[in-house]
Structure formats: C-alpha cells, structure tokens
Specification:
mainly alpha
C-alpha cells in the first residue's frame, strides 16, 4: 500500500480524496495528464480544495562537479515542474470558484 493510500484511509471521508501521482521530470506527459484529470473532475462536478505539492531532489556533490543536464533536471523537479503544475491547478480552482 502506498503511504498516500494509508493517509487517504485515515481521512474523515476517504471517498472524497483522490490521489493523482505523476512525474514532474516529464512535462510533456504530466501537463496533458493533469489537464485531462482536471477536465474529468470538472465534468463530474468535483473540484480540488487542497493540493499537496510534494516534489524535490538534491545533488550530493559540489556544483562544479555536475553537468548542465543534471542542473536542468534538478531545476525541473524542484522549481519548474511544481510551478507548471500549480498554475494548472490554480486555473482549475478559479474556474470552480467562479464558473461561467
């Protein structure tokens, strides 16, 4: 059982909790996946009230010792990915709060 499933099972009403896992290192995949997921929620009359953005990795070497590709990967996971994802979800939250 995923740790998130355990947390979900401990919620007041687990049927209202949805876990959606994706890979922030692959924006060409996660952005369309998220757009479909959000569209599905909205079509079902559901909305996101709370989002937990949990992503991050570290580099265990001196900056001078790792290459640009590694730097770009770290930046995608730790900054660009969460920002892109948050922008999608915030747009959804605004639409659901102010439909039409």
């Amino acid at each position: 059982m995923l740790k998130l499933e355990k947390v979900k099972s401990e919620c007041k009403d687990p049927s209202k909790v949805t876990i959606f896992i994706f890979d922030l290192s692959k924006p060409d995949e996660f952005i369309p996946e998220n757009e479909k997921f959000l569209e599905k929620l909205e079509n079902e009359g559901k909305k996101i009230d709370i989002m937990i953005e949990n992503a991050g990795i570290s580099q265990r070497s001196k900056a001078i010792d790792f290459d640009l590709e590694n730097h770009l990967f770290l930046t995608m996971i730790n900054y660009s990915g969460p920002v892109n994802h948050t922008k999608l979800v915030v747009r959804h939250m605004i639409r659901c709060k102010n439909p039409g």
